[in-house]
Amino acid sequence: MKRSFILSLCAVALAAITMSAAQATVDVALNLTYTQPADPSQGGTWSLVAKTDTALSNGIVGLSVRLTNMPAAGTVNASIGHEINGGLLQVGTFGLETEFVYGQNLGDATPLPVTGVGQSAATDQFFNPVWDGVTEIASGTIADLTTRPAFGAVAANEDIGGVITAATIGLTNIRGDSVGVDGLPIGDLDRNGNVDLFGDTLTALGNVGTVGATWGQGDINASGDVDLFGDTLTILGNVGATWTPVPPIAAVPEPAGLAMVMIAGVSLLAARRRVG
After folding, report:
1. In what order do the strands lie in the sheet with 25-34?
2. Which of 13, 172, 201, 254 has its Cα between 20 and 30 A from that of 152?
3. Which tens digit of pLDDT belongs to each residue from 73-120?
4. CA separation for the pair 63, 71 (Å, rounded)
């Protein structure tokens, strides 16, 4: 759908939304799982996740996220949490940024409850409880993580006591499990947050001589095989090392224009749902 048509929906969408005095907070993270934590050029997978303040909000009903250095839209996984309550996801470009616009189905004559998104029971994959409870919005693969993606801007709408209102954007993070930037312990082959004797060291020892080995098999220096000195003895020397979670950071500025486009995108998604 043309962006001009999306923008033409802004006035109607804004007029239909009643603002509430209470604003819940939405936190958004892009999680990166590296194929080879010691070699970002081998790429990996990504997951765009979001969470909201369960004490105030019934759930996220609209979300717009812009990211730079992201892969093509074809890598989006359509069978994940954003489909809760008829939610739809559109991915496009905004200048040099990739734009993810999520919206729940608010346009039916008998709309579904707008609960659930951003309020899951998930435990953070990188052992930081700040990010427990996120809902996955989109996921995919990325060929090369030498240059990591970055946030452009974020905007969201929520259900506050049955009223759709703009949310405050709290934290945004680009996080991963690389050895350098993210601090994954060298030798944590199973990526469980620590280097131990049995799960890590003995695994590497059993794979000594394996050519084409992965990080999980013991190739911690991205040399393409598991050797006794470069890999196994290094892992043994790191037994007891633990992963210190990367601290969250404050959100990027949220341009007013982005919130308007995001709201319009939600209306467009609802319209497509009705027509379909």
Report:
1. 135-142, 44-52, 25-34, 168-176
2. 13
3. 545 555 566 567 777 888 888 888 998 888 887 665 555 667 788 888
4. 19
- Number of domains comprising the chain: 2
Strand arrangement of the beta sheet that strand 60-68 belongs to: 88-94, 97-103, 60-68, 150-160, 163-166
Is residue 251 assigned to a domain? yes
In angstroms, the CA 113 to CA 111 distance is 7
Asked whether residue 173 falls in the same domain as residue 206, the answer is no
pTM of the model: 0.84
Residue 9 lies in a domain: yes
Tell me: the pLDDT tens digits for 141-185?
899 999 999 998 899 988 888 888 889 999 999 999 999 899 999
Residue 187 belongs to a domain:
no
Q: Are residues 209 and 78 both part of a single domain?
A: no
Residue 98 falls within a domain, yes or no?
A: yes
The continuous run of DSSP H or E covering 171 comes out as strand 168-176
CB 175 within 8 A of CB 188: no
